Amino acid sequence: MINFRYHVVSLAAVFLALAIGLVVGTAAANGPLAENLNDQVNKITNEKQQLRDDLEQSRAELKKNADFATEVAPMLLTNKLNGKNVLLIKLDGSDSGDVGTATDGVASMLGTAGAKVAGTLTIKEKFTAASNSATLLQLAESSAPPGLSGALPNQANGVDTSAALLAAVLVGKTGTPQVEGTRTVLSTYEASGFIGLDGDFKTPAEAVVIVAGAPATGKDAKDRNTAALTLASRFDLAGRVVVAGLSANGLVSSVRGDASIAKSISTVDNAVTAYGQVAAVMALVERLGGKTGHYGIGDGASSLLPKTASVGNGS
Fold first, then answer.
1. Which of 113, 224, 253, 315 might form a disulfide with 77, Cβ 3.0–4.6 angstroms?
2. Are residues 38 and 102 in the same domain?
3. What pTM was computed for the model?
4. DSSP 8-class letter at 122
5. Whether residue 149 sits in one domain with residue 95
6. How far apart are CA 301 and CA 256, in angstroms?
7. Coiled coil: which residue ranges (predicted)?
8. Range of the domain at 25
C-alpha cells in the first residue's frame, strides 16, 4: 500500500524535474534570445538616428528655402506697390501665434514692394461666434457714421453688418480721405473685445491681405467658418483682397470652394513660409491689376507663384 510519504516524495520529484527543465531550457535559449533582442534594439536605435538625421536635413532645407525667398524678394517685388496703402487683417484662432508670425512676414514683404501698411486689424474669435450676432448688430447701429448707417446691409446678420461697416471705414480708393467717425467705429469694436488694432489707420487702404490659420473647430465650427468667408466677401466688395492661409484648409479652402468668390478673391495657401509671403504680395500686385489667382502647394492652387510676366508695375 502506497503511503502518504511516497506521495510526498513523488510530488517533490516532479517539481524538481520541472525546475531542472526550466533552468536547462532557459540556459539553452538564453543565447539566441539575447542576441535577437540585441539585434532589435540596435535596429531601432539606427532607425531613430536616421529619422533624426532626416529631420535635421529637412530643417536645413527649409531654412535654405526661406533664405532664398528672402534674397530674391527684392528682385520680384521692389517698386511693385509704390504708393499703395494696404490693410492687414489677421484672424485669431487656435494657431494665433503662427498667424501673427505669417502676418509679420507679409508686412515685411509689403514693405519690400514699397507699400504702406495702413494698419493691422485682428478679428477676435468672438467676432465670428453666432451667439454674438445681436451684439454686433447693436454695435454697428450705435457706431456707424450718419453717412454710412443707411448703406449697411439690412439683415439680421451681425458679422455681415459689422464687416460691411469696418470695410466701409477702412477701405477706399487712393487719395480718398478717412471716413469721418472711423476712430469711433474702431474704438467701439475694440472696447467690446471684438477686434484688436495695431497702427494709425489714418489712411483708407485700397487693398487687403487677410492672414488666416486653421479652420474653426467645435460644435459651432460651421458657423465660424461661414462667418470668416462673409468677412472676406465684405472686404472684397470694398477693395482688392488676397487671403493668405497657413495651409489650404480653413478660409483658403472656403474661398476656393465657392466658384463665385474664387473669381474675385485671390488665395495663397503657404503663407507660413517666406516664399508663401512673397507669393501673397505678388498675388496682391496681380489683383490690383485686375487678375485673380490661387497659389501655393495645396488643393486648388494653380502654381506656386503668379507668373512673373503677369506682375505689373503696381498700377
1. 113
2. no
3. 0.79
4. E
5. yes
6. 9
7. 34-72
8. 1-77
